[in-house]
Amino acid sequence: MVRHFLRDDDLTPAEQAEVLDLAAELKRDRFARRPLEGPRSVAVLFDKPSTRTRVSFAVGIAELGGHALIMDAGASQLGRGETIADTARVLERQVSAIVWRTSGQERIEEMADGTAVPVVNALTDRFHPCQVLADLQTIKEAKGALAGLTLAYFGDGANNMAHSYLLGGATAGMHVRIAAPEQLPPDPAVVERAAEIAAATGGSVTVTADAKRAAAGADVLATDTWVSMGQEGKDTSAYEPYAVDEALLAQAAPDARVLHCLPAYRGKEISAAVLDGPQSVVWDEAENRLHAQKALLTWLLEH
Ligand code: CP
Ligand code: NVA
Fold first, then answer.
1. Residue 108 falls inside a structural domain
2. Is 289 labeled as catalytic in the residue annotation?
3. Binding-site annotation: residue ranges
4. Can you point out the beta strands (E) in 55-146?
5. In this structure, is residue 14 part of a structural domain?
6. In this predicted complex, what is the ipTM?
7. Which domain of life is it from (predicted)?
């Protein structure tokens, strides 16, 4: 059975740990694994803009010995109404994996259902699991381990990053706190699934409207833009108490680290002093997209 990575809990805790160990190995020796030697090709499709995801998959696939076929999906026949299922059947005859950034989670599920090659979620409206793998690698580098640490996320609790921190963090055995306006919470189905995973891994899940409480003693503070792609023009006033600034950081553990998947909007969800300050690990986080995704692709191609 082909394995896909459509959401963070598509990897069990043991599998996630394996991928993160391989990511660390590939960071030490970038050319240690060549599963795409040939070169075999990977289709990387974008329905939305991207800098980090586009670059890290292109570079990573080349470093694995393969060829990245990068396409803006709008410029393909998908943009003119060819079905996802037909596209999946065409791609699987020629490529070894499909990576897709799109809107609805059901779209990437349909792609995965229609193809015999691994499909990787490069961001949907609901999840951003490749990003959270890189984030976990970054936390592990800074702290030595993941299980038992507290990760607190602030701002848009209903977006892809919040949902992926819930599932991915719980899978790693972390205590995940989501601080978001009461009227804009994470999807209850995702919270419930994360709590179920956490019960097995020794982690926990908390959703609160109290930013200060969420930050108290946390090992990692994380945030994301208040306006995700496709939400332009959204009213963000309810998020203002959740900005990650010096005052909020002062509530966290003294050696807390700060994550932001980027792109960042200084003065909105994060202050410039925090983003550019000594506790920020956002540039390591951006680099780790490369290593984590190479590890993920290697792992998927071997399973
Ligand atoms: N963090 C992230 O996914 O960045 P891009 O949108 O630039 O790919
Ligand atoms: N939540 C953001 C993440 C960008 C990488 C978005 O979906 O636009």
1. yes
2. yes
3. 50-53, 77, 101, 128-131, 160, 224, 228-229, 261-262, 289
4. 67-72, 97-101, 119-121
5. yes
6. 0.99
7. Bacteria
Concerning whether 4 is annotated as a catalytic residue, the answer is: no
Residue given tokens 């550019």 in the structure block: 276
User: Which residue's CA is the nearest one to ligand 2's atom 6?
Assistant: 228
Domain shared by 89 and 233, yes or no: no
Residue nearest to ligand 2 atom 1, measured at CA: 228
Token readout for 269 is: 């969800």
For strand 220-223 and strand 150-154, is the pairing parallel, antiparallel, or unpaired?
parallel
pLDDT in tens, the chain (303 residues): 899 999 999 999 999 999 999 999 999 999 999 999 999 999 999 999 999 999 999 999 999 999 999 999 888 999 899 999 999 999 999 999 999 999 999 999 999 999 999 999 999 999 999 999 999 999 999 999 999 999 999 999 999 999 999 999 999 999 999 999 999 999 999 999 999 999 999 999 999 999 999 999 999 999 999 999 999 999 999 999 999 999 999 999 999 999 999 999 999 999 999 999 999 999 999 999 999 999 999 999 999
* Together in a domain, 87 and 140: no
Q: Write down the number of H helices and E strands in the chain.
A: 11, 9
Q: How far is the CA of 295 from the centre of ligand 1 (A)?
A: 18
CB-ligand 1 contact for 298 (6 Å cutoff): no
Decide: 214 and 179 in contact? Cβ < 8 Å. Answer: yes
Tally of domains in the chain: 2
Structural domain that includes position 43: 8-127+288-302
Cα 263 to averaged position of ligand 2 atoms, centre (Å): 8
Q: Among residues 7, 54, 101, 175, which one is catalytic?
A: 101
